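Query structure, 588 tokens:
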């Protein structure tokens, strides 16, 4: 890591618990205290034999006697209330976890140089009796396309924005700072949030390298919020923010056995977020539990004058955590399974495991109705996998999501760049030229960089539009909204008059979150199963109509409570770090 990070690690040790490092010791003991001499557990996975020789878990040390691994936000707060931990100790232990694992995982782009000072100030507030809320003193990461007005860079993973200065914190970051959460750093991501290329390595960026999943370090980690998902899954941080245009929260969350909350477009401000499409972009949460997700969402939603989509939001007074409930809430709930629309496209092993899980939900008192289809599914759901140009694939560019996103990106990125200081990157034309001029590191031409097989064809396609919102653009936008909203998700939920609570869908089928993305509607994914072939997790997701986050959180928490109290194997499991010794190279 960079020298700054080394310094931060030493600083963290200086603030670590005296039970870990004696503060006043003689010369011999000073030397001995620096040597890890207990044989087990190592700081590295214990070497195994045969097919498991490259696999094993990284043991996580206690933090002042407290088990930080898999700790929830409530548990961290209780430890601070009880005087077992301080915020300073918590962030110090998480930084040590970063040093232990991130050379393998590559989830953290940059650590906040002011991290320990912020934690110390929040501890001082706590001592004075001032606690801002459930996130007071809790560290978090943000995806590197979410602006932070501090000593860190916001670059979308590209070298070209290094040294640029943002005008202010993104609104969601400002809200979290107000809530007392501690910005620990920036997470790695797929460069430019996957907009730049159509054939690429998920989780790779020129600045950040290849982000990996702690479940299997050679598999697609999900993206584009890859580092956010991997960091929370590997216990580098309690929660993280990601962004989604089409799948970039739900996909890495379910591929890292996490709760992922993708809000309705307009519930969370996009101000200060490097954009793709104002019609589809949203900011959401990665957590290990639904309760933690609700705390995160409560910390970031709200009206922002700099994002006019938030001016019409429908959010409950008092936030979303008030809707958390137990498995008893499942009694009387009605869920739909859109089998032809989505489920038939899931691998057979996922179908088998998820249907067993759904039987458990049914046994808790819920009604589950099969065949609750989106009436338009044959027009909008590709049978051949995720395809955001499926309209174009069918020969109708005026029915394509990609037609909209290309134009939006050309205009939205220019607006974002206009607000930056200390940079000469001002337009998509500048971005494209930089990638050509730096083809070796940025892969501006096809077939040059292994992580960017198609070069920057996504940028080139957007560039060709010149941002013109012509008749084809407006036809495509109208088609995508109508067929995924009133003729799609809403019609399936209405179910010919038997209204459903939510749709249950398999989010490893990318067409699920693609339809929700085009609609601008929310999804919540829960950990569910594990692939026997790859060891990679997959989830079960709840899909709803606009502004239905309170309903989705209510029933996601009920299902999670059922998972935790029933003894089922269909729930979050710890990462196995399969293939952790494999060389970190682009995975696609």
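Result returned for the query:
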């Amino acid at each position: 890591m960079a020298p700054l990070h080394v310094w931060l690690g030493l600083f963290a040790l200086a603030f670590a618990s005296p039970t870990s490092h004696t503060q006043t010791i003689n010369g011999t003991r000073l030397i001995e205290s620096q040597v890890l001499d207990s044989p087990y557990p190592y700081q590295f996975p214990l070497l195994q034999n045969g097919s498991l020789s490259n696999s094993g878990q990284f043991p996580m040390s206690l933090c002042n006697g407290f088990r930080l691994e898999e700790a929830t936000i409530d548990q961290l707060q209780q430890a601070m209330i009880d005087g077992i931990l301080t915020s300073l100790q918590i962030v110090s232990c998480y930084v040590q976890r970063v040093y232990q694992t991130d050379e393998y995982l590559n989830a953290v782009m940059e650590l906040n140089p002011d991290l320990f000072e912020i934690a110390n100030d929040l501890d001082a507030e706590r001592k004075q009796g001032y606690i801002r809320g459930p996130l007071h003193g809790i560290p978090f990461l943000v995806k590197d396309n979410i602006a932070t007005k501090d000593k860190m860079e916001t670059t979308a993973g590209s070298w070209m924005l290094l040294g640029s200065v943002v005008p202010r914190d993104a609104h969601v970051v400002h809200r979290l700072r107000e809530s007392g959460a501690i910005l620990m750093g920036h997470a790695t991501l797929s460069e430019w949030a996957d907009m730049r290329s159509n054939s690429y390595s998920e989780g790779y960026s020129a600045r950040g390298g290849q982000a990996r999943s702690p479940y299997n370090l050679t598999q697609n980690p999900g993206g584009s919020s890859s580092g956010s998902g991997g960091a929370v899954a590997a216990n580098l941080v309690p929660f993280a923010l990601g962004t989604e245009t089409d799948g970039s929260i739900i996909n890495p969350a379910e591929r890292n056995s996490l709760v992922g909350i993708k809000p309705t477009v307009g519930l969370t401000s996009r101000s200060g977020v490097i954009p793709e499409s104002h019609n589809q972009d949203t900011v959401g949460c990665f957590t290990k539990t639904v309760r933690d997700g609700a705390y995160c969402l409560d910390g970031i939603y709200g009206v922002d004058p700099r994002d006019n989509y938030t001016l019409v939001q429908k959010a409950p007074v008092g936030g979303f955590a008030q809707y958390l409930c137990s498995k008893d809430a499942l009694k009387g709930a009605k869920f739909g399974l859109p089998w032809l629309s989505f489920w038939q496209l899931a691998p057979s092993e996922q179908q088998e495991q998820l249907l067993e899980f759904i039987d458990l939900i049914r046994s808790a008192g819920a009604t589950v109705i099969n065949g609750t289809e989106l009436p338009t599914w044959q027009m909008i759901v590709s049978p051949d996998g995720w395809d955001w140009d499926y309209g174009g694939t069918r020969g109708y560019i005026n029915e394509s999501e990609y037609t909209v996103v290309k134009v939006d990106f050309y205009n939205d990125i220019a607006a974002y760049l206009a607000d930056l200081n200390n940079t000469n990157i001002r337009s998509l034309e500048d971005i494209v030229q930089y990638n050509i001029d730096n083809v070796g590191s940025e892969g501006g031409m096809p077939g040059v960089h292994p992580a960017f097989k198609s070069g920057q064809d996504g940028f080139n396609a957007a560039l060709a539009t010149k941002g013109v919102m012509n008749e084809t653009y407006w036809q495509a936008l109208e088609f995508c909204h109508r067929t995924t909203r009133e003729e799609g998700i809403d019609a399936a939920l209405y179910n010919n008059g038997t209204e459903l609570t939510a749709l249950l869908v398999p989010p490893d089928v990318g067409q699920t979150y693609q339809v929700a993305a085009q609609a601008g509607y929310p999804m919540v994914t829960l950990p569910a199963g594990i692939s026997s072939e790859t060891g990679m997790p997959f989830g079960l997701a709840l899909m709803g109509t606009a502004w239905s986050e309170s309903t989705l959180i209510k029933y996601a928490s009920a299902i999670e409570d059922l998972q935790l109290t029933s003894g089922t194997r269909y729930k979050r499991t710890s990462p196995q770090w399969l293939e952790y010794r494999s060389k970190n190279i682009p995975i696609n």
